[in-house]
């Protein structure tokens, strides 16, 4: 914390604590379901037995409800007594981060959230939220009217490391001539658990692709195309039961993601940053979940199976506003994102100087627009 000077202190998150009964009355202000539901949903994905056994689920739920009440009482005491004005924490949507984040807001602290960057070699630091609830404007005209410099973005993507328990075959497949790329996401990530209303898991994602394929094959004016799926390398288990289910839906787990995007006709994502990377590589992007980049003219968004079917039917003739894409990506890089990935720093001084400046001057689209108007 030396980069931030004497005004900052570092506290390790507590997972298990003794309850502070002096703070127990304050827990009535809390929505305990808010503190445990996302955590339980993520546990159900990781441990499917929790979906099959109501007794076990109820037992685990009771444990987590008491645990988060205890943690909340601890953070009520800590943050009520601590002289800090601002609490900086990771993500804010999942445990063990959710409880201190919620309590910090309740005791009147300012809150700032860290997250992985939305472009290669960047970091997010946002006062409002991350991913689908971040501070970036959703109005395409905001970006089209932005007067900043449009930059040539670095189009070299950063490969995601495979989970230590994930088996790697090292064998790439030969890609079909015409295909649509479908990157799977981490099934228990908050992007799926919190921000994917009609596609709750990867099996449902596959089913939506297969349903679209069935629809397309019945259309006389449809040009045949295959779908190529890549499982997320950070998820330890493979969806092996789906691998040979449909000859027109192919898995390419060991192929390079950048090559998969570059050679694709389009990319379908729920709300992954692969969608942003695909815009970076000038591809049509179709989103199925809640995403901060669900902006008219930037991507094609489907809220239902029927909407997805119709988008795919005319995907050969669809396009996006390239000026909007360029300005959106440049705006994110120049105005919103911090340089360098937090876990792969090449210049620590430059990165933490940017962090310090952002903490002193939090991002606000209104502030940016006001500065543009002054110019």
UniProtKB/TrEMBL annotation:
The GO annotation for biological process reads: polysaccharide biosynthetic process; polysaccharide transport
Q: Which residues are in coiled coils?
A: none
* Protein name (record): Capsular biosynthesis protein
Q: Which domain of life is it from?
A: Bacteria
Q: What is the protein's species of origin?
A: Psychrosphaera saromensis
Alphabetized InterPro entries for the sequence? Capsule_polysaccharide_synth (IPR007833), TagF_C (IPR043148)
């Amino acid at each position: 914390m030396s980069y931030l000077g004497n005004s900052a202190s570092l506290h390790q998150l507590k997972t298990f604590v003794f309850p502070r009964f002096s703070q127990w009355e304050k827990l009535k202000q809390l929505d305990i379901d808010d503190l445990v539901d996302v955590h339980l949903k993520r546990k159900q994905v990781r441990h499917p037995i929790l979906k099959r056994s109501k007794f076990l689920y109820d037992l685990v739920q009771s444990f987590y409800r008491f645990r988060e009440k205890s943690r909340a009482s601890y953070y009520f005491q800590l943050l009520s007594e601590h002289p800090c004005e601002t609490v900086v924490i990771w993500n804010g949507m999942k445990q063990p981060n959710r409880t201190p984040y919620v309590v910090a807001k309740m005791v009147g602290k300012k809150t700032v959230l860290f997250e992985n960057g939305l472009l290669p070699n960047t970091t997010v630091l946002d006062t409002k939220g991350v991913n689908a609830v971040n501070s970036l404007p959703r109005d395409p005209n905001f970006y089209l009217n932005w007067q900043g410099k449009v930059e040539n973005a670095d189009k070299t993507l950063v490969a995601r490391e495979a989970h230590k328990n994930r088996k790697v075959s090292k064998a790439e497949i030969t890609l079909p001539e015409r295909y649509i790329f479908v990157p799977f996401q981490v099934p228990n990530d908050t992007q799926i658990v919190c921000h994917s209303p009609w596609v709750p898991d990867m099996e449902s994602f596959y089913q939506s692709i297969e349903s679209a394929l069935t629809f397309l094959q019945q259309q006389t004016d449809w040009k045949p195309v295959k779908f190529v799926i890549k499982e997320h390398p950070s998820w330890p288990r493979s969806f092996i039961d789906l691998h040979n289910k449909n000859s027109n839906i192919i898995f390419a787990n060991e192929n390079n993601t950048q090559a998969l995007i570059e050679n694709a006709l389009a990319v379908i994502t729920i709300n992954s940053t692969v969608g942003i990377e695909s815009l970076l590589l000038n591809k049509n992007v179709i989103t199925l979940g809640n995403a901060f980049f669900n902006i008219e003219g930037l991507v094609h968004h489907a809220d239902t199976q029927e909407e997805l079917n119709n988008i795919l039917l005319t995907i050969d003739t669809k396009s996006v506003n390239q000026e909007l894409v360029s300005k959106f990506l440049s705006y994110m890089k120049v105005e919103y994102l911090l340089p360098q990935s937090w876990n792969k720093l090449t210049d620590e001084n430059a990165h933490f100087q940017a962090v310090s400046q952002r903490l002193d001057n939090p991002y606000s689209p209104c502030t940016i627009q006001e500065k543009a108007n002054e110019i």
